[in-house]
Amino acid sequence: MLLPADYHMHTPLCGHAVGEPVDYARRAVELGLPEIGFSEHSPMRRDDFDNWRMLNGQLDNYVAKVRLAQTEFPQLTIRLALEVDYLPGQEDWIRDLAARHPWDYFIGSVHYVSDSWGIDDPAKLSEWKKRDAFEVWSAYFDRLTLAAESKLFEIIGHADLVKKFGIRPAQDCTPLYARFLTAAAIAGCAIELNTAGLRKDCKEIYPSRQLLELAFQKGVTITFGSDAHAPEEVGMDFPDAVQLARAVGYLDCCRFVQRKRERVKF
Prior knowledge:
By secondary structure, the chain is α/β, with parallel strands linked by helices. 32% of the residues lie in helices and 17% in strands.
């Protein structure tokens, strides 16, 4: 099976990953991946915003680490990217980050439904008990829709991350999916098949088959990502992700060069 590019990988700069970019690149070569992309959690304006992203002063170091991997493994295409949290009101900050280096793509992710609650943070799992699940899912997809509409990102990351802990509302979420995917289609923004969900409590690829089927119907393009936080996670469960994509109807995915999109078969 010809595996697609792995566009979602981290580094120790986020504080919760192990292995340097050269180690991830070495693993990708072993697997026969054609292309990878590093997408570390970007800095926030305030370094004390949370404790799971690189600091402002580490951004150039991050770029240097990726450039080293590119030099060490010239036979592998390695892209330079960021995973950027979308928070309403922070759009100018994202534009500032975009101007600092020649990035290949930005993954826009929603982790926060308020300035203080990251819905996927195990340390704040108790916050779910204080809220109605459908209200949380609604707030999450509202922000995901805004992220797509902003046109600041080439890819939307783990589009139903809100299911991470297996907490799902009884209500039908199709209208939430549809509104978000309509925005993504209009903006020309891809969504990723992120295999990290298989390693979480939800035990399911992000996004669900239901959401992915709707994405295909609306003409939303896709990428693939392992969300690797260790070299052994590079390309993990990609055959399952490819099988899911093909079952829904996808025959190609996106690759990005200097924030320009190309479509390639997988």
